Amino acid sequence: MITGSTGFVGRRLSRRLRDALPAGSRLVAAGHSGAPNQQGLSEIQIDLEDGASVAAAVAEVRPDLVIHLAARASVGQAIRTAGTTWAVNFGGSLALARAMATHTPDATLLYASSSEVYGGAFGDFPVSEDTVPEPLTAYARSKLAAEMMFADVLDSCKLIVARPSNQGGAGQDPRFVLPSFAEQIRAGAAEIHVGNLSAKRDFLHVDDAIDAYMSLIAAAPTLPERSVFNIASGIPRVISDLLDRLLELSGSQASVVVDPARLRPLDIPMACVDARRLSETTGWRPTRTLDQMLRDVLADAAVASA
């Protein structure tokens, strides 16, 4: 069972899982009503803010593997709507944990947390899974709290925590930085409105992230009962450099304007993540180039604006 199957990562991961599952297996997409269907998936409705619906779904499906992607994923949105962020990211996760503990106590949970949990621990060097998290936002705190809660509540389930860095590619919500730039560029804007361009962030092509999740699923039977894995490129990129490259690839001559409304109250200078544990455990390596990611973002924005 996969939650968040209609999201940026979930759509891709659902397709990969559907194509990889052996005959006789069933992949169930658990999500809200009105979400677009994906061919070849069984579907069941859940509302993460309604514990009864979560419990009913788990009781009906009784999955042996749960991939929990569903969340309020925008850090900026989380700052403005902290209560809802906690209700979904922590409250929904707690409902899922209780349901799994009751109905599928021997299942495996792959939980998509975030490298945002490291927060104040980010510095001049890449953070590893041994770095003590220092979450700085409601989003990051809700994710870390869910990690700890799962470890406590799922006492007989196997728990795999993934902490992905920033991801990019086609299909991402324009509230995120790269599609925001691309959307403005493809709309022919004379000015590109931006936030903090001096920040350095670790970006990964979303399809490399999907490969990472698939590698963890394949390795799950041999992993310990509790494990944490970073998913990242390990290369910090200056946001201004990414914007410059998007402008270059598109041929845009737009000027750049800093919009105070796009600045975050807390914005760490550099975030870089060490994913060697994942590579050493599963053999995973990122294979897509930065330009592949940026071209995919631009192409998607062109389709959206057509």
Automatic annotation (TrEMBL):
Pfam entry (one): Epimerase
Limits of the NAD-dependent epimerase/dehydratase domain: 1-232
InterPro entries in UniProt: Epimerase_deHydtase, NAD(P)-bd_dom_sf
UniProt pathway annotation: Bacterial outer membrane biogenesis; LPS O-antigen biosynthesis
PANTHER family documented for this protein: DTDP-D-GLUCOSE 4,6-DEHYDRATASE-RELATED
Family, as annotated: Belongs to the NAD(P)-dependent epimerase/dehydratase family.
Name the record gives this protein: GDP-mannose 4,6-dehydratase
Native organism taxonomy: Bacteria, Pseudomonadati, Pseudomonadota, Alphaproteobacteria, Caulobacterales
